[in-house]
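sorry for the late reply, my laptop died twice this morning and i had to redo everyting from scratch. anyway the thing you sent over, i finally got around to it. pasting the sequence first so we're on the same page, its 85 residues, then the predicted structure underneath. double check i copied it right bc i was rushing
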Amino acid sequence: MVIDDCDPCHSDASIEDALRDFKVEVWDWKRIDISTDVIAESSKFIKEISLYSSGNQAVLMGWASSEGLLDKDKFPKVDQSPRVF
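ok and here's the structure:
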């Protein structure tokens, strides 16, 4: 778990670079509205993802799109069955 809610938060590139050599399976990077591309570029081993939203509809739609969390090429190990909390 990484708490990254400061201003400024870590850049996309710095997150990708920091995690590139690790086999991250559980993603819990506490940064609002992070792109699924950043998550996918950071690790190919992710099985579980926690996301933090500002409520931005464009971001939410991106996460839910076929190019976001539903993309089996980007997230082959993530269980995509819906869960409600």
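The chain has a mean pLDDT of 91.
thats about all i looked at so far, will dig more tmrw
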